[in-house]
Amino acid sequence: MNRQKEIYQQVGVLTAIGIGLLAIVLLTPNGARHTEAFYQAALQTTWSDLLDYSAAWSSIKIILLSISLFLLIESAGTVLSMRKYRSLAILVFFFQIIPCAALFCGGYYLLKSLF
Prior knowledge:
The protein has 115 residues and is mainly alpha-helical. It has one domain (2-29, 39-114). It has helices at 2-27, 40-44, 53-82, 86-94, 97-114. It starts with a helix and ends with a helix. The model has no long low-confidence stretch (mean pLDDT 89).
């Protein structure tokens, strides 16, 4: 029983970090030039734009969002597996592919905006 309590405490920490990163992404000002979505500046940058800081900030927000989603999905999957919903937990863990792909895309756009 003590092991379960420790796991739930770790899940709580991961969830708090995930929600904190999500709050940073959603509550900080966008790097977009107008009232566009926060990722538009990163998507619209080209390799010829050297040191495009608004696109770099948008890329960092994409990276933070993907880390946040990864932590929240990990927390949900762990809780489901602890509650003996193994098949649903496997499905939830499978969705971690999406934030991993977003992390690579954010890294690519960060390199693209700085070099």
